[in-house]
Amino acid sequence: MTISNLDDFHELKLNEDEDSILILAPHCDDEALSCGGIIQDALDKDIAVQVVFLTNGDGFRWGAVRNFLRPFLSHKSFKKFGELRQQESIKALQTLGLPQENIYFLGYPDRGISFLWGEYWHDEKVYLSRYTQTVNNPYTLAYKQEQPYTGRNIIEDLVEILIKHQPTKIFVSSTFDEHSDHWAAYNFLYYALAKIELDKKLLKKPEIYQYLTHRGKWPLPKGEDMKPPKALIDNIAEWSNFQLTDDQKNNKEEAIRKYKSQLKVTKRYLLSFVKDNEIFIKDNPKKFNTESEISSIKLPSYNASYRYQEPVNDSKKRRRFPGGDIIEGELSLNENKLVLNLEMKEEFTHKYSFKFHLHLLTKEDNNDKRHTLDFTVTTKKDSNETSIQTIPFQTNRLNFDKMAVKKKEKQLKVAINIPKLFASKYIFFNAESYFKGRSVDRTAWKIIKIN
After folding, report:
1. 72: domain CATH number?
2. How far, in Å, CA of 93 to CA of 89, rounded?
3. In the predicted structure, residue 150 carries a pLDDT above the cut 60
């Protein structure tokens, strides 16, 4: 597939007899930017549409400063800004034809969703918003008022909404997105779906479509056709295309213009999403968690491996530090042993370090539990010797018997003996690279189902 030919894309069509749509948006405006045409087409066909906002976008400091014309803002001002963005979303979606009763505002902390995915998962440790200075949802217009800021509560909310509406197509921010709220939203969706599947409460396994919002300067400049970033084609992702009519395109622009607070700061960027089409990365074309070349896969046995490619050479820092540019990853299972293998563009030195994130979802005594293992690997100067430092978590740390690391030229391999591997149902995995402590690259999260 080449980015110059949209005819090579899978054509995304909505089925008026079967479909039900859910759009999961990290912030107020993501739904209109990426799915404004989809929303209109669904409503024109009398297909049910629900829009779920994870946050109210109250942490966009420059937007708040420009709106209130004050360089320093109180936590009350950020909350007021979040309320403003809620009202803009209601107006934007009404422009597209969606009534307010089909909108969910969950009210979790802007720029904090990745922290809730990580160390603020359990109820024992709640997250404090840097902007509203609250540890729970302070908004009146909310799905659950005063809901504490933890990852488990996001899962609870999403599970309830997914079971209630039983969507057949879900549109969610991409795992390849550079904004941490966006890739974390993707993880939360898949975790909620995995939990529902374990409890057998999903009537039909939905099709998942990723939409991209933040990837360098993409999708600038403004033009007629929306095309993927060059780094995310060929073997990286499978793209789908949805063509807008002239009326849908005009209505989409009108909806985006309802976000006046954002236009004051990022007008050119926002309007660059007004094109003749919308594009999506198609996850698992036929089933949720079956064999696939992209994010969520199924390993058919305990002696299996999965190899995937990563975007390469697609930013200044990765071109400057090629020893941290992760070009390929592989996960292998052999009974209780999990092997993680990374390959970089060039051989890396002791100045590079690598951080691994591993979450296992298990089914134990009718309770779904997440076990976590985070660790950092460093190499020694003038040597292939490595050292490992595990990062502690307060609750449900993943127990392992043994861990071994091997460095060979451009490759880094980690083997872990995990007693709970047999009991695990899903693995969530991601790796990051650093040069002298500065971030260089981050792999897309991989969600793996184990038989």
Report:
1. 3.40.50.10320
2. 6
3. yes
